[in-house]
Write a structure and sequence with these properties.
Elements (H helix, E strand, L loop, with lengths): L6 H8 L11 H8 L1 E4 L4 E6 L4 E4 L2 E7 L2 E4 L4 E13 L2 E14 L4 E8 L2 E4 L3 E8 L36 E4 L1
Parallel strand pairs: 1-3, 2-4, 3-5, 4-6, 5-6, 6-7, 7-8, 7-9, 8-10
Antiparallel strand pairs: 9-11
Helix pairs in contact: 1-2
Length: about 170
């Protein structure tokens, strides 16, 4: 006779408790992975915590601090994300801080306040708003009596697209 599924153990594993995770059992990986996948027809609003990787296929309106955020082509994230790595194939709108790496795929679009360690934008990908390298910091302001004022950094618009095969398909900024 087949045994009943361990639903209580599954829920405990999802929220990060070890009670339902038996060594080598199916829920052990869930509690260690801490991955949240928001499916194509799902809408989620709120604050996301204790999530190692967020995969957005549907729509998320939230604030989060995580290691990785990935949006699929169908995915929309609106809000604030503080992550190590962001891979955007859908739409991200709001405040994005990618401490290590931001990858905007050909179908991706990022709008808002963007800070990044390094950035890769595939041909067709779009980035707009207040975009800065984390290392660059804010511009230095000088007094009127000294050297001329530093020009405030301007938001970066869309990255130009390659017009012929001899030009690179990727735009890489420091």
């Amino acid at each position: 006779m087949p045994s009943k599924p361990d639903y209580a153990g599954a829920v405990a594993g999802i929220v990060g408790q070890q009670a339902g995770a038996r060594a080598g059992g199916p829920m052990a990986q869930v509690s260690e992975d801490n991955r949240l996948i928001v499916g194509r027809n799902i809408q989620l609003k709120g604050e996301i915590g204790a999530c190692d990787t967020l995969v957005v296929e549907g729509r998320v309106e939230a604030s989060m601090k995580s290691r990785i955020i990935q949006t699929a082509e169908s995915g929309v994230f609106i809000g604030e994300a503080d992550v190590e790595t962001a891979e955007i194939s859908g739409l991200f709108e709001g405040k994005l801080t990618a401490h290590k790496r931001l990858v905007v795929h050909a179908t991706g679009q990022v709008k808002g306040t963007v800070r990044y360690g390094s950035i890769v934008i595939e041909e067709g990908g779009r980035v707009s708003g207040d975009v800065k390298d984390i290392e660059a910091g804010e511009p230095v302001q000088r007094s009127a009596s000294s050297a001329p004022q530093a020009v405030p950094s301007q938001p970066i618009g869309e990255v130009g697209r390659a017009t012929d095969a001899s030009q690179p398909k990727f735009a890489t900024l420091p």
